[in-house]
Amino acid sequence: MSTRITRTALGLSAGFLIWAAHFTLIYALTAVTCSRGYIGVGTLRTSLFAATVVALILTFAVLPRALKPRSGRTLSFLGETGALVAGLAMIGILWNAVPVLFLPVCR
Amino acid sequence: MEAPTPAKLPNPLPRPPNELARLEEAWRLPTGLRWLTVVNNSHIGILYIGAALLFFLLAGLLAVLMRIQLAVPGNTLIGHELYNQLFTMHGTMMMFLFAVPVVEAMGILLLPNMLGARDLPFPRLSAYAFWAYFIGGLVFFTSLFAGLAPRSGWFMYPPLSSSAYSPGINADFWLLGIGFIEISAIAGAIEIIVGILKTRSPGMSLDKLPIFAWAMLIFAFMIVFAFPAVIVATLLLELERAFGWPFFIAEKGGDPLLWQHLFWFFGHPEVYIIFLPAAGMVSMIVPTMAGVPLIGYRLVVLAILGTGFLSFGLWVHHMFTTGLPSLSLGFFSAASMAVAIPSGIQVFAWIATFASGRRIQWTTPTYFVLGFLFIFTLGGLTGVMVAMMPFDWQAHDTYFVVAHLHYVLIGGMVFPLFAAFYYWAPTVSVRPLSEKLGRWCFWFLFAGVNLTFFPMHVTGLLGMPRRVYTYIPGLGWEIPNLISSLSTGLIFTGILIFLVDLCLNFRPFRENAGNVWNAGTIEWLPASTYQTRSIPIVRSREPVWDQPGLAEDVANGRYYLPGTVTGGRETLITSPVDAEPQYVLTLPGNDAKPLIAAAFTAAFFMLLTVKFYAIAVICGVIALLTVIAWMWDCDPSWDGPPAAIGGGLQVPINVGGQMGHAWWATVVLVLVTGTAFTCLLFSYLFLWLSKPGIWNASPLPELSWAFTTAVVYLAAWAALHYAGRTLARGGSAHPFLFTFAAVLVSTAAASEAYGHWQAGVRPHATAYGASVFALASFQIFLALTLTVLIVFSVARYVAGRTTESRRASFDTTALLFRATAVQGLVALALIHGFPRALPS
Q1: Which of B334, B578, B690 lies nearest to residue A98, judging by beta carbons?
Q2: Residue B659's closest chain A neighbor by CA?
Q3: Which helix (H) or strand (E) holds B645?
Q4: What is the pLDDT of residues B777-801, one digit of tens each?
Q5: Touching check for B341 and chain A: CB below 8 Å?
Q6: Which residues fall within 8 angstroms of residue B106, CB to CB, at 6 or more apart?
Q7: Three-class SS of residue B535?
Q8: For A93, which residue in chain B has the nearest alpha carbon?
Q9: B780: which residues sit within 8 A by CB, 6+ positions away?
Q10: Please, are residues B605 and B596 in contact by the beta-carbon 8 Å criterion?
Q11: Which among A74, A100, A106 has CB closest to B205?
């Protein structure tokens, strides 16, 4: 696989890939906990909160690399768009996690 | 890349005398009955759109019948048996035979021109996909006349669609018929991804990619990750119906919710798959009509990427009433609201573009775009309403949802589609369509759609459920239903006007009307069957606006590849990020094999449905042999000099390896099979979560079985590795090693299945057995496919068509082989490791 296109695609979509991982994790964790109870509800809430914080940090960490000044319009475009993706992903991650504050966990 | 000044254009004038004639000859349209052998994207694209419109009309007529039945309470025109078939077929045909195919077809038709390519990279694959879809779709439709149409709703929920409650072959028509139409869509997706990334004009770097191409690229990737889910669901339900493997039967450890998860994991991205290309088309039309470049290009690209990703996180909003935990539903509620942001970004970009235009062209496309903005926005608003879980609790399965989905689909796709027909008709027709008829068509459709579907919000809130064939009077449903039913006449009239317009004005397959709207993108350059005479260098997003004299210079052959180097059809392959020329790809000409293979593939699936197994297998074998004959000509060698495409550039012809188009297609195929495999893993884990008792009670083979199978997979990998080494060195052991690898991988797959069998696991006994054997069967299927591919590849080697430098058939098979081996090892780890690792 031509590595340049792979790196470009990954760089562009990094924010959303982190969002996807976060979403999968919080959904799976909630589903398994509510069905099986391997961990308690309190531990679940803490884990969801922690996962969200980690995801936000990782998405934020995409920004410096994305916004690094680059030569040429194409590379600047790809970097800037990657930064915009990270920004939207942060909004998505935060918004996805908001229900944890308001909703009962397993009812 | 700097756009060259006239003195520095790649190819000088005058052009050699017979250069154009040779180009025209290579791309000549066949006459008479041989017309059926076309593979050129311009012709396949138009056939594809025509077929999709046919299915649109047929499915629309079914809706008219339903609306007549619902016009008054207690109507006895259509009984519930037929009515169930009508709404199932209407939904299924609209979603699978119209919506996705038509936007895919617009891509097939428009993309090569828009990218500066002469054709898509796999012309025969698009021809195959089209014919399979057309033949299969027609046969599927005719099931209505035999009373055999599926009748469990277009999303076919078990247990209703299972054998207990749907005996007979109606449901099988859906499962087998739609299953292979989905495969057709995946073939198109592979084509579009490779085409957009590898066949662009030099200079068309990713920041200059037309928005429609961005939309189609993400659309195609969404198909790659979403369609395997419904294919797996379809296969599991068919296995349950045909062989009693109880994936969805609760008493045996199955769960109907498994179907819902798999189906909607596909189903929700499906509607964005339908919407994104339409939004992409609007992003091309609005700048032209406003006369200015699109405002917020980067934000629109962000929106397209955002829609692509976020839409995969919404699927449970179709399952709000299934009793899942509130917090889980809350995540999906939140995500369903978040996905409105990308759509909103695009809407604001279009409004801003119109607002910044100096002189807007008030044409039929403009009207349809404005109609789209109005109707789609209304649909989006009701979408945010149903995204609220408590509200959806009331509105689920009522006409409110029917209203919402028609507003977003008709508003969000059909209106842009009509805008696109009126907009791009001049690129494929001698005459544009009629402005006058277009306006009439628009107003009838706009009024008709609003008057038909707006009242359904009311009936839904008044409690009218979906899919009822009649209703009692006195509930206040009479007047809204009557308005809806009468207004379908307006929609019908609008479509009729459009058809009249087509008959009067649409004249394809000859010259085209030219750049009547003064658009800026390169699909508007002068073109013929070979697309543009020469492949331009682009410097901006609107090259026709920004590069003076571009049309004339391209038509005179001043840019790259103004003729044909090999005497046959060719296109230029460029690098995926910067679009720098890499090599010339030779393309096939007219060929009957795709049509024949498609007909026998359709016959295979349809004969299986009606249980004529022997003939079905024969047809399948003929289809396979036809495909092998077609592939025999692939990866041709070129012994001549490199191609001088102009400007001093010499590029190779037909490069293989990781730069080659076959490799890229195989990478996408591996993503598809990998997604299907992941869905099977999910099925196993979901059923474990839902019915742990069955898991704990099920036998597990000794760990030694798992280790043995793993070792055989690794040995297969090693055999493959050495087969590759001997190919590179020209050694004679290659065919034996490659064949041995096939034997080993098949043995590994069979050994896993046999291990479970001898431990007492039975696929029809419990859902545990079914999910274990589903994974094992998938691996066996892949191993058999690999065996066929390897035998084919070895035959090519023996015939001298595969050599150390011409090895695409080995490389692509090896990639699929390694992916299969990895999947096999992962499945072993899950099935044998997971139950043992669980806390008891």
Answers
A1: B334
A2: A2
A3: strand B643-646
A4: 999 999 999 999 999 999 999 999 9
A5: yes
A6: B45, B49, B277, B281, B417, B420
A7: strand
A8: B335
A9: B746, B749, B750, B753
A10: no
A11: A74
